[in-house]
Design goal:
The protein is mainly beta and 256 residues long. The protein has two helices and twelve strands; from the N terminus they run ββββββββββββαα. Strands 1, 2, 3, 4, 5, 6, 7, 8, 9, 10, 11 and 12 form a twelve-stranded mixed β-sheet that branches. The protein starts with a strand and ends with a helix. About 8% of the residues have low confidence.
Length: 256
Amino acid sequence: DISLIRHFPKASIAIDDLNINGSAPFEEVTLVSAKRIEVVVNLMSLFSDDGYEVEHIILNRPNVNAIINSNNIANWDIMKADESVASENTEEVDDNTEVIETEVADTTESNESSPFKLHLRKFSIEEANIWYNDSVSNMAFGIEDFNLSLSGNMNDMRTDLVIETNIDKLNAIIDGVSYIKNATFNADLNVDADLENSKFTLKENSIALNAIKLNIDGWVAMPTDDAIEMDLSLNSSTIKFKDILSMIPAIYQNSF
């Protein structure tokens, strides 16, 4: 769907009722689905050389169902193998196997930068459900009614990211023990994002797991692709003992 009215004066491009099933042996199992995936763009930026200005990406009611069965096969491994054979620079032309060299295209990367630029200002997820079930490790995790709003000027080298998220039901089962059952999670984070140096500093923030309210101070940095540096402190200004007891798995509560 392409609309000039829904977010006027901006244009929106959307996919409705998306559904992706797995491959064998998961042909009947839905891997990913979504009620609507919508991208809102500045219409004039499509005709500009300054890059495409994406105002908002919205994922409405997405569902992810990730499974590893007892044979250690994952249902998200759906990409077909490339069966094409790379072209050779020789070919057989007769019984004497005469060889003719063929010209190979120059694959040297251009030094010119790509003309594609993305100006993302907001990303949101509405009423998502995510499940992960690993039969090999005997673990299962579930998130129900997950909402996320992330806003900021992603095109700037430094910006304030405002993140709001809440989960209505959070579950974790390991070896048949329900360690987290229908817990609620809420977080409001204000992050100073130094995108040029990949360093993120937490400013005002609050996190709540059930009735346990926490604060995180510090920073996380990724100076290289294979390294993560951090200096974080976790604290709580007020916490009650009964709130901690509420997080104890039900299988152990009879012992208290």
